[in-house]
Write a structure and sequence with these properties.
The chain is 0% helix and 50% strand. By secondary structure, the protein is mainly beta. The chain is rod-shaped, with a radius of gyration of 33 Å.
Length: 205
């Protein structure tokens, strides 16, 4: 802009001016501002320039997480600049989205770019997968009953499906007396509400 006169910079920040006070270099360590007053085209103008310095060391990916298999995880985005995430390596290709459904444990790398500066951090996402084991397939004669058994982690709860011909579909050791061959699926749920399934077949002769 040409024709600017009577430029005055007002600030408590360290400042150096040049080009007849039209250009200024300001050093700011915290959020602050500079007021500049000038005359142009017979009018006087005052403008405020706000500085908001950013420290790349403040980038925070958050705490490590323990999640269920394929559970949706929303990786955080910085309020400054642009954020990209990478899986497994800081040089891996950027993820298409910050919303993921991890199925294996991995380190995720956060990279934030702002005003030419780059800050990084990372977090580890582990998968909480319950452990269960059934007593296996069994063969019975028509009219007989048989115990079914599932073992697993301390604190697990269980649900058998279908629940007919069972005396207790939520027991780890229900009694089954089916009248025809049937496949039972048991779902184990751990204390973090993560689930896993196993199955067995009861053959009726």
């Amino acid at each position: 802009m040409t024709g600017v006169t009577n430029v005055t910079w007002v600030t408590t920040l360290p400042i150096t001016t040049s080009n007849g006070d039209l250009d200024a270099n300001v050093t700011a360590a915290d959020t602050n501002y500079v007021d500049v007053t000038y005359d142009w085209n017979t009018c006087t103008y005052t403008e405020r320039i706000i500085f908001q310095p950013w420290d790349p060391l403040t980038v925070d990916a958050g705490a490590d997480q323990l999640v269920c298999l394929a559970q949706q995880v929303v990786l955080p985005l910085s309020s400054f600049g642009s954020t990209i995430w990478r899986e497994g390596s800081p040089t891996a290709a950027p993820l298409a989205s910050n919303i993921i459904n991890p199925t294996t444990p991995a380190v995720y790398y956060m990279e934030v770019s702002y005003n030419g500066c780059i800050g990084t951090d990372d977090l580890f996402i582990d998968i909480d997968l319950p452990t269960i084991t059934t007593s296996g397939d069994v063969t019975i004669c028509l009219g007989e009953s048989t115990p079914l058994t599932v073992n697993g982690d301390v604190g697990n709860t269980y649900t058998w499906s279908p629940n007919f011909c069972l005396n207790d579909a939520s027991s780890a050791t229900p009694i089954a007396n089916p009248t025809s061959t049937i496949k039972y699926v048991v779902t184990g749920t751990n204390t973090n509400s993560c689930t896993i399934k196993d199955s067995l077949i009861v053959t009726v002769n």
